[in-house]
Design goal:
The chain is of the alpha+beta class and 142 residues long. The protein has one domain. The protein is 40% helix and 17% strand. It is built from three helices and five strands; from the N terminus they run αααβββββ. The chain has a five-stranded antiparallel sheet with strand order 1-2-3-4-5. A hairpin with a 7-residue loop joins β3 and β4. The two termini are 32 Å apart.
């Protein structure tokens, strides 16, 4: 029995059904993140004292960033509303809880640009420890 609690447990087929919607959501998320970074970079050029501040403090200091930050938050919430876990915006990494054999909980791992879920990794490890799913094309794994 697993001590992990997830709202949804996926099968590889269920995760793959979400890929088209996730591709759209990840594109929106990456665009929002890029827009926010661009606006922050502009402000830091004018006020170098803002460099290195945590994002919440930057947004508090510059209220004009609130809407762009809210767009980013909504895009991230959209990805996670499907029951999966957003792991990295820039790489477009998404994990799906999956009960492997004998009740072992792991994450199915998908990266933006991959045609399907082709790998998994232990819950306490990450992208670098991905293992190929049986029957998945190996050339996508680095």
């Amino acid at each position: 029995m697993s001590s992990y609690q997830f709202d949804k447990i996926f099968t590889p087929a269920e995760a793959n059904e979400l890929i088209p919607r996730l591709e759209v959501a990840i594109r929106e998320l990456q665009a929002s993140a890029s827009a926010l970074r661009g606006r922050i970079a502009e402000l830091v050029k004018r006020e170098p004292g803002a460099r290195g501040l945590p994002l919440p403090q930057i947004i508090e200091r510059y209220p004009q960033l609130r809407e762009t930050a809210a767009q980013l938050a909504r895009a991230a919430e959209k990805v996670e509303s499907y029951g999966c876990l957003l792991k990295d915006i820039d790489q477009g990494l998404v994990d799906f809880p999956w009960e492997m054999e004998e009740g072992r909980m792991v994450f199915l791992c998908w990266q933006f640009g991959e045609p399907a879920v082709i790998a998994w990794h232990p819950i306490d490890e990450g992208f670098a420890q991905r293992q190929p799913l049986s029957g998945a094309p190996k050339h996508y794994l680095n």
